[in-house]
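Morning. Coffee machine broken again, so started the prediction first thing and wrote up yesterday's gels while waiting. Chain of 352 residues, entered below exactly as on the submission form.
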Amino acid sequence: MEKKTRIIGILLWLLLQGVGMYSVQAAEKSMRLTDPSDTLSNEFIRSYPDRFYIRPFITSRSLRMSLLDSSPNRNRLKYRPNNRPYAGVSVYLFDLGVSLSLRLPETITDNAQRFGETKIFDIQANIYAKRIGADLIYQKYEGFYVNNPKDFIQQWNQNNPFPQRRDLALSTLFTNVFYIFNHKRFSFRSAFNQADRQMKSKGSFFLTESFSRIHISSDSSLVPPEASDEFTPIQGFNGGDFYTLAIMPGYAHNFIMKKVYINASVALGLGNQWKNYVLNGVDINEQEAGLVANFRGGFGYNGDRFFSGISSFFQNVSVDVDRLTVKGLSSNIKVFVGYRFEEKGILKKKLF
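Came back before lunch.
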């Protein structure tokens, strides 16, 4: 019953966030029509209301986990998936950006015998309006390998298969909603969805509301026998459910050199965590503070017609389990190239 209540609560929260996003988009349109100071094009930000674009891209998504011991040696166990990049295309039309991507076919570089196989379901949405933005991410990965076996297996060498955990499953739900304070002079959109072009270097503070749910499951302890000496106090940790609700202040800056841009953004905050896990056969329910951080970065060329670049997004959530710190990291690195076309006829209509 408690699990169903949590799921219903999450769905209602996502619905409210979606309604909020739509309301803000509509409000922004109204403000643009009534506030002469909020023009579509000014000395800091240039928009392209009469153009749409097509943007092919290649992206690498990942979900990884690290176990960090609290001993003086700070032993670390790194679990990584055997994943492949995605290729897709984005279209920005009617003041709305939509992307579709497919996982690239398997190649010899995957080397399943060496790294094992990972079953992946990964869906992500990053929304950037002028005043607010949102990230909606759901990832489910099954099957990992230990990326640093040399730290625990002295006889292991680089030519050997990496230790594999087919039984290990990790799923995450991340939702962020953030407000940009200096939205009239700073544009997230210029670096991450190219709906705008930043004309002069400028930055802004922003505030993020973040919710995350991490689910970890395995048939046996997350600490393999080879590492049991280093992680003795928490050998019986098989997984659990971890929820975090946090407020994160942050700062972002666009550095502009003519039509070349560099973006750096970081947000960091403490949140409340609800933890339900099994340790050495005992069910444990706890509630305490936890750390959440995310980073965005971008680099590229953004002209009036042609643009290209690279963007990245990382979100990290840390959870303490007894003497162990569990770190979940979600990432998305994208390389893209695009071109803006003139809108004609029905393409000139706006949804918001």
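The helical segments are 2-34, 112-115, 189-192. Going to sketch it on the whiteboard this afternoon.
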